[in-house]
Input
Amino acid sequence: MSMPITDKELPETLVMEILLRLPVKSLMRFKCVCKSWCSSFQTSYFITNHKNDNLNLLFKGFFGGFKVPHFSLLSTETESKKHGGPNVEFNLQIKENIRMPVPICSGNRSRLTVSGVCNGLLCLHDGYRITLWNPSTREVKLLPESTISLPPFVDCTYFYCMGLGFDRKSDDYKVLVNVINHVHDEERIIPLKYISQIHLYSLGTESWREIPHPKVSFDRLKHLFNIYINGFCHYINGICHWPAFDDSGDLILFFDVAEEVFSTSRLPNFGMSRAECFWYIASFNEALATIVHPKSGMEKCYDIWVLNGYLWTKQLTIGPILGVGRPLGFWKNGELFLESENHDLVMFDPCTGKLQDFGIHMPKCGTQLVVYAESIVPIKGSSEYKANITRRVKFPVK
Output
């Protein structure tokens, strides 16, 4: 590999080790240093071994009266980084507001949502179109419509993007879509019924194909477009996870991305009936977890159950906490993001027992808080600039 000439050149292997530890923003700038560096950044080895643990927070809502949803990138600095003193308090502020163009939210604009996150890539869906987005490299790709044949006598078709996963065996990213077809008989005598299909998109081949249906119900994914956060796809170590249900009750649906096989797991005994509690799935320390809390009461306790292999274990209980509602996900060290009763973004730290309000208001419908890692994974797309995605620095939230 040719390198820029200096008085004292570093060994190529050492240079590469340094580059592998740099943030994505720096790598995007260094692509212009020399062609060999630019080529190296695009190799499978570099993408796989890029060691960057920077986590980012993206908040989706509707701000300033706009009907088009905005994604707000939040800064995640502590006081020590800003002032040089001890770690006093974790600080969250709006860093950028990102507005999506009409092609990405071409249907009902209020429905644009994040269906899943995988290796720094976000899968967006508005009920009509699916978009892959790498916020770190600012690359975006609008997926083509599915080419899978539909059943005969279809009146109408609805589809819900289930999410995104990574196939380690083939080094490929795959998107799953639940297609629900409303059908009738040829003479329109037999009453209407629904036939579901699973369509799978491969980024590697840029093509669609159909895979066997898991034979469980997960129509509640439609609530992604309201305030129901449970339909969000959680990708962990090669497996995608969703809530689902069958005739026996609630369960977790698994999808092995490499083997393309579905499986299920029953929920643990939460110690209260399903009618008495809300439950959500989440990623907790790189493991699948459920967050459970009672529906009633001013103060709420959140039980965290973690799946180890095939066994559910109650890991801890967070709370009681006054004036909070639905959980939004975990941060780096087990801190829990929540929505307050006043629809503000707050965070509870189990270590200190403190509840911190960041002064960021969350509209009642369609809000999401997404945690993702920086990534240089390419998606065969175009730049945000060409896709007409606009970023505005420190746009007012309220």
In short: The CA atoms of residues 64 and 311 lie 46 Å apart.
